[in-house]
Amino acid sequence: MVLEVRTHCQFLGLIVGFLAWILTLTTAGLNEWRLWYVSDKSVVTSGVAWVGIWRTCFYSHAMPKIENCQSISVSADFLPVEIPVAQVLMTLAVICGLGGNIGGALAMRMAYFSVDDRRSIRLHFVLAGLLYLLTATLSLVPLVWNMTSVLNNSTIDFPPEFQLPAAPVSQKIGSAIGVGMMASIMMLLSGMVFLCYQYVWHTVRSESPTDPMNSSLVATALSHPSETFKHDRSRGGVDNPAFHIEEIS
């Protein structure tokens, strides 16, 4: 029961980590990393285009489709370096976040239900915490980099088929960066919660005679009670005289 009470914070951290992973996955798929405002509204009739890391989109009444999108390849030579880096790092962040959730679920299962061998519980909690921290780091690097490019109003030399000018009138940070920042903060919190779990750092060590969770000693005492009593007598224990009186009578 004491162990279950201690793991409630870690269970909450697992839930937060799972929600953060969903937000990270959403961030990678959103198009609104940059809001690209244009002066010529003959094609981009809404006056604003969404530039993501995987594609660009805008609304237009001058073209057959209302919403027009162009895919962005990681090998495109016109891209600034922060966009292909974001493609790679966000993919890795999604994979690491999934691994962190799996590791966290296994750690919580061991903390709540496993009573035989807890020597590997530290590895599971530390691994889950490190994966969460790595996910947050992998997300923060492209988010901060692209946010800096937006604030500096950096240009992108789009090819003609994108129907977008190389230099916009102005840029704004899109909602994807905000969602990603929130996900990264949640991942950091989850990782710290798992790494700061006191039980795995102070209680779980090599088999300790004073460890209440040491099931091997309990099993030995039940199967060989005489050996256990001899061991206690060797430490200076004194027999209860009442037992000897009953044996003599």
Textual characterization of the structure:
Helix content is 58%, strand content 9%. By secondary structure, it is of the alpha+beta class. It has two domains: 2-203, Butyryl-CoA Dehydrogenase, subunit A, domain 3; 215-248, no CATH class. A five-stranded antiparallel beta sheet has the order 4-3-2-1-5. A hairpin with a 7-residue loop joins strand 3 (55-59) and strand 4. Helix 4 runs antiparallel to helix 5. The radius of gyration is 30 Å and the shape is elongated. The relative contact order is 0.17.
Q: Could you please say which CATH topology of the largest domain applies here?
A: Butyryl-CoA Dehydrogenase, subunit A, domain 3
- How many helices? 9
Global mean pLDDT: 79
CATH class of the largest domain: Mainly Alpha
Provide the succession of SSEs. HHEEEEHHEHHHHH
Q: In terms of per-residue confidence, which ranges show pLDDT below 50 for 5 or more consecutive residues? A: 1-5, 206-222, 228-234, 240-249
Cα Rg: 30 Å
What is the overall silhouette?
A: elongated
Mind describing the biggest β-sheet?
A: 5 strands, antiparallel
* CATH architectural label of the largest domain: Up-down Bundle
Based on DSSP secondary structure assignment, what is the total number of beta strands? Answer: 5
Distance between the termini: 44 Å
> What is the percentage of strand-forming residues?
5-15%
Helix content: 55-70%
Strands of the biggest beta sheet: in what spatial order?
A: 4-3-2-1-5
Number of domains: 2
Structural class: alpha+beta
